[in-house]
Design a protein that fits this description.
CATH superfamily of the largest domain: P-loop containing nucleotide triphosphate hydrolases
Low-confidence stretches: 1-10, 35-39
Mean pLDDT: 90
Structural class: alpha/beta
Strand content: 15-25%
Radius of gyration: 30 Å
CATH class of the largest domain: Alpha Beta
Helix content: 40-55%
CATH architecture of the largest domain: 3-Layer(aba) Sandwich
Largest sheet: 8 strands, parallel
CATH topology of the largest domain: Rossmann fold
Shape: globular
Length: 814
């Protein structure tokens, strides 16, 4: 049912593709999982080309159809493209339209809902053809043929039926009536949005410093298109400064839909609260928040139970119950996961799929980065370029690493063996195909050892690693690729026959899907990294990773599918690094805004007399405990200390507890769940005197607002450099080949982003006052000094006594 929206048009012609009309109006019955879009799409293209090349003389491939219809006081242009058109050859044989559909099963075993949907598309094509023929004195009958091509058998199963014009007209107009009735209801909501957006005023009496400039530049980006990068310090009010101009652009009919991307739950909450305040002022906007499928699934939440074939009962008859749910959601102001779940419960349908169906008809979508950028899970609605859509990318610095992960993929021998064992007794065919993949991984390792790629081999902790080019070399693991395709083909056959693989291999299957999809995206920014861990042990781990070193070109491709992209964060520096990693066009504007707070609100103190590098950490502990204690006792309140690793954190914590047992120390632990995180944060309420130890770049160092007295000081230990590993070293080498200092790209810039994000936790409002202590000799170097925010006034302390004096001086000026 999901399809693209046209720009709001009242009396103008509505341009509608046959595929979109069918997807909205002609679906019925069960929700059927589609096979993965990667390899199946490629196989489908090859099958189409094969059959089209075999067409008889005079037949036309990719035949375009375009028909004008006046219906329900609306002019509609229906358009589409038929796979093969056979023109009328004599008086007794009508013209014929062929649609090719690829499958792994004989037509008799396909679900009826799938077959009916394909026939629906062909029927509307037939109607369009006959309307055009009648305009030139044509016939009243057309032959429609669905050619089911079995990819497994490599055999075509044609099914041909002749239809009269009256049958096809009735079918098409019924579908069009459903669509137009819905669209009119949506248009009424849309007009209310436009009217109220035009009247909307900025919700605060005045702009903060830099806030108006951000809003103006953002509006220009939304209106004119393109990309804008904005570094807006903490407290600027980035959420309202970007959403307000975007909504005004909708009111002036410059945009159709907004997509707000954020990697943090706190970011989603801020958007909800901001929009709710604007709605209370009269704005008639519909907001949809998309939650991850695993957190939304009714089966995962224990609300339903899958049947013996692994099918969720909420997918049975999904499309028959969907219209009532859609009617209940249209125009609602806040479509939160709870709102979606409540309506889905009433109709007993899948809540996640319901959110995808309503998505094209809402004004603002709030979701994670991956729904736009990840090639495995990105949503089709976001790829439709007819929509004038704007991306608002919050905390854009996080997109660098996230995008590289999205365009990387990994397979392991151990996980594959476990998946094969899980299929025992469930699906012997799938088990055999997975076992074949296990052997392919083993053979690839054997080949690397035998064929002489020693120049790409190195040792690392507990094993060895090979690095080979992802494209253009004989060392590419083609046998693994073939085995992956075999696994996916087997899975597709199960799905087409309304069966499901074992639930326990779902996560592993996603990794296989990703491998297949990323393999089709391989470019010069990829390397194949093969690892063998503990190679002499009987349980040795073998792993193949398609590693993306820079995802800039893929991000740029996604930006181009939208009218505008605004990337903003408190830490986007230097511009050259950000543009090269985020795929922003070089001529795009870069906006760096001033801090809205007074310099005297924040004390920044450098302690370069301590070396926190790995080799010197044991010697640093005593001095570090002194710094922490002096800072903590300089003024009552809550303080956080951020470390580069858990081991370092634990060493300092042990020493601190021994010297200051009266202080209740809160520690971040590896693998903490939401309950443990909440307990940690509860210690930082106003009025407390808490000291917390946490990991730099972790959950407590980004995306959390410690407003007011919740946090009065932060001690940052080290420069935040990522851990040295094969992946980072490959990034470094790749940058060096382009003439850039690779150590900066792979380590120093990402590390400084962590530092600045962590430092930004302290001052969150006009009334806040706090201190930032930077502990490391490297912070006094020119490289880091030039990356400090302009509003910082760092003070160098040569010893602990100087730090104590400067802290007393700062706190006395209140």
């Amino acid at each position: 049912m999901a399809l693209a929206l046209d720009s709001f048009e009242s009396a103008e012609t509505l341009n509608l593709s046959v595929g979109e009309l069918v997807a909205f109006s002609c679906r019925s019955g069960d929700l059927i999982r589609e096979p993965t879009s990667g390899p199946s799409a490629q196989e489908g293209i090859r099958a189409h080309q094969k059959l089209q090349n075999q067409r008889p003389k005079g037949a036309e491939a990719e035949y375009k159809l375009k028909t004008q219809i006046d219906w329900m006081e609306q002019q509609v242009t229906l358009s589409g493209r038929v796979d093969i058109f056979h023109p009328k050859s004599d008086l007794h044989k009508p013209a014929q339209l062929d649609e090719i559909k690829t499958t792994y099963l004989p037509p008799s075993k396909l679900p009826e809902a799938t077959k009916e949907l394909h026939w629906a598309q062909l029927k509307i094509y037939g109607y369009c053809h006959l309307v055009n023929e009648d305009a030139t004195g044509g016939t009243d009958t057309v032959a429609l043929q669905v050619v089911w091509y079995n990819l497994k058998e490599r055999k075509a199963y044609p099914e041909c039926i002749e239809y009269r014009f009256s049958e096809l007209e009735a079918f098409t107009l019924e579908a069009l009536t459903k669509y137009l009735c819905w669209r009119r209801a949506w248009q009424e909501h849309r007009q209310r949005l436009i009217d109220t957006a035009k009247q909307l005023a900025f919700p605060f009496p005045q702009y903060r410093p830099g806030q108006r400039q951000l809003a103006v530049e953002a509006y220009r980006c939304f209106r004119d298109g393109g990309e804008l990068v904005a570094e807006a310090p903490t407290g600027t009010g980035k959420t309202i400064s970007t959403l307000f101009p975007a909504i005004k652009a909708i009111g002036e009919e410059k945009l159709d839909q907004l997509v707000y991307l954020t990697a943090k739950n706190s970011g989603r909450q801020m958007v909800r609260e901001t929009i709710e305040a604007l709605q209370e002022s009269g704005l008639q906007l519909s907001l949809l928040e998309i939650q991850a499928r695993e957190k939304t699934c009714a089966c995962n939440l224990g609300l339903c139970t899958r049947d013996d074939d692994g099918i969720c009962p909420r997918t049975r008859g999904f499309y028959d119950r969907l219209p009532v749910a859609m009617d209940a959601l249209l125009g609602r102001p806040q479509l939160t996961p709870k709102e979606i779940a409540d309506v889905a419960d009433q109709q007993q349908i899948c809540p996640f799929e319901l959110s995808l169906q309503i998505l094209p008809w809402v004004d603002l979508v709030v979701c994670d980065f991956n729904y736009v950028f990840d090639p495995l899970v990105r949503l089709t609605s976001f790829q439709n370029q007819r929509n004038r859509r704007a991306l608002l990318i919050d905390e854009a610095h996080n997109l660098i690493d996230r995008a590289q992960e999205m365009y990387s993929a990994k397979l392991s021998r151990r996980d594959s063996r476990r998946a094969a064992n899980a299929c025992k007794g469930h699906s012997p065919t799938l088990r055999r195909s997975i076992q074949s993949l296990v052997r392919a991984i083993e053979n690839w390792i054997k080949r690397l050892r035998e064929v002489g790629v020693a120049q790409s081999r190195s040792t690392f902790e507990g094993g060895e690693v090979w690095v080979t080019a992802a494209t253009g070399e004989a060392e590419h693991p083609e046998s693994v690729s073939r085995s992956v395709q075999k696994v996916l083909s087997t899975v597709s056959q199960l799905i087409e026959s309304s069966q499901s693989p074992p639930e326990e291999i779902a996560e592993w299957l996603r990794s296989v899907y990703r491998y297949a999809v990323i393999e089709q995206e391989l470019c010069g920014q990829h390397k194949v990294v093969t690892r063998v861990i503990d190679r002499d042990a009987p349980w040795q781990e073998q792993e193949i990773k398609l590693l993306c070193l820079n995802a800039a070109q893929f991000l740029q491709r996604s930006y181009q599918q939208n009218q505008a992209a605004l990337l903003f964060s408190a830490t986007l520096r230097p511009a050259s690094y950000i543009f090269s990693q985020l795929g922003v066009e070089h001529e795009s504007p870069y906006l760096r805004l001033p801090s809205p707070f007074q310099p005297q609100q924040q004390g920044v103190f450098l302690c370069p007399y301590i070396d926190t590098r790995y080799q010197a950490r044991d010697r640093s502990i005593e001095n570090l405990v002194d710094i922490i204690s002096r800072t903590f006792y300089s003024r009552a309140g809550n303080y956080l200390v951020f470390f580069p690793s858990y081991r370092y954190l634990e060493q300092v914590a042990e020493s601190f507890k021994a010297r200051f047992p009266e202080v209740s120390l809160l520690q971040q632990l590896p693998g903490q769940g939401e309950t443990e995180r909440a307990e940690f944060l509860s210690g930082f309420n106003e009025g407390n005197k808490s000291l917390g130890f946490a990991i730099m770049g972790g959950i407590f160092g980004e995306g959390i607002d410690y407003v007011g007295e919740r946090l009065v000081g932060t001690i940052i230990v080290g420069t935040g450099l990522p851990q040295v590993n094969v992946e980072r070293e490959l990034q470094r080498d790749a940058a060096e080949t382009t003439g850039i200092h690779g150590f900066d790209i792979a380590y120093r810039y990402p590390g400084m982003t962590r530092v600045l994000q962590t430092a930004g936790r302290v001052i969150r409002s006009e009334s806040d006052k706090g201190v930032i202590i930077l502990v490391d000799s490297r912070f006094s170097e020119p490289f880091y000094w030039q990356l400090f925010p302009e509003h910082w006034q760092p003070v160098i302390c040569r010893n602990t006594d100087q730090l104590t004096g400067k802290l007393e001086q700062f706190w006395s000026l209140s």
